[in-house]
Structures are given as structure tokens and as C-alpha cells.
Amino acid sequence: MAHHLQLFQQIKSFYKAEGYGTGAKKYILHFQGGSRIGGQTYDQLLKSALTRSKTILGSSKNLNQQMFYHGWFERTKTANEYYYNWNMIHLNYCDGTRYKSDPVEYNNEKLYFRGDQIVKSWLLDLNDELQKAELVIVSGCSAGGIAAYFWVDYIRSKLSANVVVYGVPDSGIFIDMPAIDGTDNQKQSLSLLMELVNSEVTHPNSECVKNNQQQEWKCYYAQYLLEYIKTPVFIVQSLYDYYSLSQLFKVDCSDNYNLTYCSQDQQDFSQTLYSKTYDVIMKRKQNFQETGGFAPSCLEHCFLLTPRYDSSDWEVPGQSGNTLSNTLYKWFNSNQKYDDNLYMDGVEWPGNGHCSNSEISNYQTQIQIIIIIIISVIIS
Fold first, then answer.
1. Are 319 and 325 in contact (CB under 8 A)?
2. What GO molecular function terms would the record report (predicted)?
3. 82-136 residue pLDDT tens
């Protein structure tokens, strides 16, 4: 059995590894992540899109024919005990709008924002086999995590009632709040993007759109969308999302995946992000008891297709044995309405020491001090 995923391309572009044995009728549908096009004006958005169109995140022309993945896409039993023989399907992200939208012209070049069409073509192509599936998991990381929130109920609605469907979005919660400098570029950019490319398509979660007709932008934030998602979900999310802190909220002291060198204001802002993310997940759990989750109090972004998936350094609580791999498996195989499968750190950073990177920072500081002393001795 091949240990890689094979590329398939037509309107859509995806990698696939065939399931076999006990995994022949079980599927993981994973949306690739990769941020989105951005800008505070239409021109900036289109310039960002044109630049992106020349990369593998904007076009499938230069993708490798085969791809190897880590974490729960590993294809050996020793590396991925629970899912090694499942059907693994990785939808490539070549749209830049979080898998939504339509075409526009810029600098004499046509930019095809076909995320909505790509996803529906992908699902149509897989429809016959998915209708015969036992279990389908809708997943994705970062922008792909948001896509999993977007599409999980739609996918559920298109499949037979006999097919069990779950959502496992990874790092798809981006909190709606201004950056540390008071700007709100994230929301402004999103509003422009919606006007630019979503004129002929609607958000796949129709209930969210119906209930937010004057504020449809809310349906692009998981914190609001979770209220309308009926499919059971297992939320994978850092409570201090690294991408959010370092890129969206401009907390530049977090670049080393820790808060050691942050000012008090920066640390306070980071704790606000922790509290808001914690509250979003808890609200989902209170409203939908079957919700599970894995949420460490450490700075990171994306887990499922990385070594962090089953690393003993990433456990909730710390040193409990509750890795993402173990907790996710427990959730799949439990009575979800009655068992508590929400593994969320109740401590703030750096309370979960093994994944906090605080010890690494202290070590780096000691090295820097030693180097300064040596240089001082040499100079003197």
C-alpha cells in the first residue's frame, strides 16, 4: 500500500490515498490551509490575489504528483494507529478566499475565484463513494479549518442519513476583535473581499446567513457560525493561536511561539485572546453537549498534519497522557452526549509547561547572556 497521496486534477485539485481493510469505507476530507488574500482596498486585494495566483496556493499547475503528510494522514500503523488505512483526501487550496467566490479581471489578467465551484465539483466527483461510506470526517487547518466550519453541515445534508458525519476543524477560530494597536484590518479586509468575489454565491451555511442578513460577515467567523452548525464537531484550537497573535493582532513579541519577551500590555492582550477563545469553545459545548475538543494553552497554529498530533509534549492537561491523537479517538468512540470529551487547558500560559516554549526561551536567554559575557571579555 502506497504511503503517499496521489494528485487528481480537473476543475478541482486534490490528493487522495485509497482506504483499505477496516478503513475502506471511512473518509477524512481535509481542506488545506494557507491564509487568504488580503488588503485594505480593492486594488490591494487584487494585487494580493495576482501574486498568490503564481504560487501553489493560487494555482494547481505546479503541484507535485504525489505528496506525503504527517500526523493523522500518516499511512503506516506504527505512525498512525487509528486512521492509517482510511481514505484520505486533501483538497488543495488554490482560491485564496477560504473556499468561496467568482472571477475578476486585474492588470489584464483574469483571476478566477472559484472556491465554491471547486468544493462542489470535488464533492460531486466523490459523491458515489461517499454515499456508501460508514463515516466521513470533514477537517482542515487554518483557512481550511474555517472551511471545515463552513461546509460541514452542507456535506452532511448531501449524504445519506446512514453515513455518520463529523467535523474536526483545526485552528479555524479567529476571534473577532481589534489588534493590539486598535486597528481592525481583518474585518475591513473581509468585508471588501465579500463584496469583490461573493456576488453570485452564498455562504454554505444557509441558517447562519438567514439569521444574519444585515451582518453576513459574522458567518465567516467560527465564533458566530458555531451557533448554527448542527453536525457534531471536535474543535482543535490553541487558546493562544500563534497566527492570530503574530499576524492578525500584531503582538510581535510572540514570534518565538512564547510570550517571554512581551510587555505587560502585550501579555494582557494575549490573555484576552485566551479568555475569548475559551469562552467560544465553552459556549459551543453548553449548547451542543456532544462537542469535543483539544485546546492547549500554548502558542501554535495547526496540529492534525504535524508531529504535534501525537506528541507527549502536547497534552491537555500537561503530562496527562491526553494527546490530540488519544482524545480525538476517545471522542469518536464514546457516548458523545453524555461523556465529557472537551480537553481544554484551564491554566494560562505558561501553565502547560511542556508545550509553552518558555523553557526554550529561558535557555536561549542564558545562551545570549553567555555570548555577551564572552564578547565583553574578548573586547576588554
1. no
2. hydrolase activity
3. 999 999 998 876 554 444 445 566 566 665 555 677 788 888 889 999 999 999 9
pLDDT by residue (tens digit) across 13-66? 778 889 999 999 999 999 987 666 666 776 776 766 666 666 655 555 555 566
Burial 133-146 (b: 16+ CB within 10 A, else e): beebbbbbbbbbbb
Classify the phi-psi angles of 4: left when phi > 0, otherwise alpha if psi is within -120 to 50, otherwise beta: beta
**C-alpha cell recorded at residue 286:** 453548553
End-to-end Cα, the chain, rounded Å = 64
CB-count burial class (<10 Å; 0-12, 13-18, 19+) for 313:
middle
Q: Given 3-state DSSP classes, what are the helix, strand and coil percentages for the chain, each rounded to the nearest 5?
A: 40, 15, 45
d(CA 211, CA 216): 9
At 150, list the grid cell. 463552513
Q: Does domain 5-379 have CATH number 3.40.390?
A: no
Residue spans per domain, the chain? 5-379
DSSP annotation of 373 reads: H
Cell, residue 48: 494580493
Angle at 315 between CA 313 and CA 320, to 5 degrees: 110
Instruction: Report the DSSP pairing between strands 26-31 and 135-141.
Output: parallel
Residue 76 grid coordinates? 503506516
In terms of Cα–Cα distance, which of 3, 1, 6, 4 is closest to 65? Answer: 6
Residues 6+ apart with CB under 8 A from 354: 312, 313, 314, 315, 318, 319
Residue with grid cell 498512525, as numbered in its chain:
80
At 114, list the grid cell: 472559484
∠ Cα 131 150 36 (to 5°):
125
Vertex 266: Cα angle to 261 and 269 (nearest 5): 145
* CA proximity to 202, closest of 140, 139, 138, 116: 116
